[in-house]
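Progress narrative, work stream C.
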Amino acid sequence: MRKQFWLYVFLFLTLGVWSQETVPVNEMYTMAREEAFEHKNYDKAIGFMEEVVKKAPENVDYAIFLGRLYTWDKQTDKARRILGATFKSNSEYEDAALAYASLEFWNQDSEKALEITNKGLQSHPDSENLLVLKAKVLMDLKRGQEASKTLNTALKYHPKSTNVRSLLQNMATGENLNEVGISYNFVDFKERFDQPWHLASLHYGRQTGIGPIFGRLNYGNRFGIGSTQFEMDFYPRISKTFYAYINGGISNDKAIFPEYRAGFSLYANLPAAFEVDAGFRMLQFDESSWTYTFGLGKYYKNYWFNLRTYLNAVDAEVADSYALTARYYFGGADDYFSVRVGTGFSPDNTSNNVLFNNTARLHSTNFALGYRNLLGQTHVVYVEASYDRIEFASDTFDDQYTVKLGYIKRF
């Protein structure tokens, strides 16, 4: 009986070894991928791939995948050994550079990651993956100008890349640290007012290590009366996923601008080039008006879409506003055509946010077309024309026409 037992054990072990040895390498590779991606069983996937690499040590893709498995399983030393050796003997192979550089970047060695991506780009200067990774590494090293330049290079090679365009827009940085700009709004009406409104703005902005900051002086002239407002905008980067918008302003005449204004939004960059945000705006006229805003954005090839809502409580009712914006990019982040359709009032629109100084729930429909273009390397021009059908008082409507012109100089 004892002899039979040990015979069964011997046969089981022999058959197990025999069956593993006879499994084709490509099937074991498929099994490892299934365990890693479908079951998240990295231990089992690593077991398969270690056997695969022993049987086919000349296959670079197998070695890289094993290195990635070690990386995901936080076996950093093993990952570094196999990926480093693979890259050293195959430095011209794009995926070898990408896997090794990603490992070092994820383990907070951005200088080493930059060195690897630069070597990889020598053989593959148009690689979208390597250029994007290099830009992320440069941002981690607080080298925003170089990151922006790298992404613009990627955009030239891959003009329809959703990933590159999304990153370039969300980094909110440029190759120049400073900018000054001027804009002018001409607002006319069909019947309600004899005189047009005039709004002008002068701003200065600077890219800082934690995000861009802007100071803006606004001048408004309505009904022949002038007023000024000073604002500041700040876009701090919180992490690789989150950044914020912070706004504050003060005016000397609440008949044209709110006496005080404040705003905050938190933005999150999500996978698949989605972006969501939520925040508030406060305008202080005779009384304070609080509006809550939510937005969803999506990059798709050369397009950007954004759906935004503003919710404001008026006399126990909710005054809601909605806007759908679409942009078509024909170049970099400053080169696009835009169209916007919406209903209601936006506290971010200086042309008519004075209407928030009203206890009635008013209505509006609007439509706008815009164009923005980078000229040379440092000059940006933009123009927007819009139409609003506005309710200025209960059941009293008029047509508002607005033309906005602007210019920005970066240095």
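Work stream C, second folded protein:
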Amino acid sequence: HTFGKTHGAGPADNVGAEPEAADLHQQGLGWKNSFGTGKGPDTITSGLEVTWTTTPTQWSNNYLENLFGFEWELTHSPAGANQWTAKDGAGAGSIPDAHDPSKRRNPTMLTTDLALRFDPIYEPISRRFLENPDQLSDAFARAWFKLIHRDMGPLSRYFGPEMPSEELLWQDPIPDVDHALVDDSDVTALKSKLLNSGLTVSQLVSTAWAAASTFRGSDKRGGANGGRLRLAPQKFWQANQPEQLANVLAKLEGIQSEFNSGGKKISLADLIVLAGSAGVEQAAKNAGHNVTVPFTPGRMDASQEQTDVESFGFLEPIADGFRNYVKSRYSVPAEALLIDKAQLLTLTAPEMTALIGGLRVLNTNVGQTRHGVFTQQQEALTNDFFKNLLDMGVEWKPTSEANEEFEGRDRKTGDAKWTATRVDLVFGSNAQLRALAEVYASDDAKEKFVKDFVAAWTKVMNLDRFDLK
């Protein structure tokens, strides 16, 4: 509020409908203002008519000087909205008019402005800034920088001569690589140790997915890099099955420690992704397909001190359809939450479909529920999910009035065959997703399915590898 003003030159009924509700001939403009000229001094937005400082086009400390320097009385804007004016004519004529240099105005404030002075929590902060303008300037600069860079991801994505050298906690810092990266022979040896560690394919794959699937394309946060799956708050998230996760991480850390003692090093972040890739390769082999899941080392492990626990808390999934997980009941159906998750992961519809089919037959469901696990084959990357989903010999019925879980029975015998969620059945119900499911369900699509799953899997594992793009 060091800058500018609010606009409330007249009553709100002078302003027309918003663009979507405006008449067709207004061509998407909307909010047509019939008051006076409809612009400049006749502008109506909030309905409040307030200019805070004597220098509304310059940076200054005058906003706080006025806020604390005057006493205030309740008045009304030309539109009739409640606002505040300096008592007893104090500061009269000290505020310039925004449009007519010959006019002067009295100091005015919003109710929210006065809260910064009279609220017991905000008042000490505001007074400190009043008495220390340099602190306000620094705090504003940092807050403004954060506001306009919050969706750019880590500092490694910044570019230009004005890029600050200071790395900030909200940028989710990750240490630079400080060791030689593993080569192909190292990767082969590590895969062998991972597959002989006693961990199941489901555990290897679900752990890697838990790490990488936190990525959000909306603000470039999350992902496997940083190895924050082992840190608070992620290691406590319900979706990550904390008890199982702790056991898996303990074994992975043992493998890491043994490998690193030999002179070479691998980060736990890299090892988690490699473990998932090894699990996918083994599952494909169990289904009769020899594939190599691409793996590019170079991830590093962040520390707990480099992790803002409160900020990362907002990345906790309330639902992850890829793991058939919903934290609670919501007004939004589970299949819609799946689509939201998929778009955050920047997935296409075919990529989403392939991943669902593969993750289901590998049983990465939270709690290892059998919902959507439409296969009798263990740890095999088959197209069974799609084949059995589209089986016309199965009749599906909801198990409760909530219509969230379903049971599939043989139409002839009545025997129970499968259980499913809304996320599972949408791939047979939605026309577009069913078309994709039919492709993958074909007898001649087994190899294509594995190939597409590996490609989509690799994409998710590398979403936060900005150094590769």
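The mean pLDDT is 98. No further action is required on this item.
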